[in-house]
Amino acid sequence: MNFQFLPLKPKVQVFIVLVSIIITGIIGIPFGDPRFIIYAILLELTYIFLAFFVAKGYKMSLYVCIPLAILIIVGNSFVSAHIHRIMTLSRPLNTVVLILGGYILQGLLIYTSIVAIKFSKISNQH
Questions:
Q1: Is residue 108, in this structure, part of any structural domain at all?
Q2: Is residue 35 in a domain?
Q3: At the N or C end, where does the chain have fewer CB atoms within 10 A?
């Protein structure tokens, strides 16, 4: 696979996606259910640690991003309040944050992590 078309190195792309998830989470936490704020903060801290480890160049953090993102997507898909919010757009700002942070950016995290892992394997072979 030719990665020459990429304007940024794959690990930098993962870092940018992680920072985007963190920013989206910081925006979204105040609008969420107060009963789950501690879990939201813990999840934010997880993304902050992952961003730190990706920035430091730890390859294992790329492998952690994939199942975490899958877990978030699956978890969001089974929460009835999330599904209701997406279907009805009852709280538009909350819905946009949920779709952006809970699905789009998580999908990008999976994709960029896989590309970064493949890129590191290819660059280690040469």
A1: yes
A2: yes
A3: C
The span from the CA of 105 to the CA of 95, in Å, is: 14
Q: Are the CB atoms for 86 and 76 separated by under 8 Å?
A: no
Using the predicted structure, report yes or no on whether residue 126 has a pLDDT greater than 70.
no
Domain count, the chain: 1
Q: Tell me phi and psi for residue 82, to 5 degrees.
A: -70, -45
Asked whether the beta carbons of 116 and 10 are under 8 A apart, the reply is yes
Task: Give me the numbers of helices (H) and strands (E) for the chain, helices first please.
Answer: 6, 0
Q: Which amino acid is at 79?
A: V
Q: Note whether residue 91 is domain-resident.
A: yes
- In 3D space, the residue among 76, 14, 66 whose CA is nearest the CA of residue 39 turns out to be 76
Kindly state whether residue 2 falls inside one of the protein's structural domains. no
Q: Length of the chain in residues, anyone?
A: 126
Task: Quote the pTM value.
Answer: 0.88
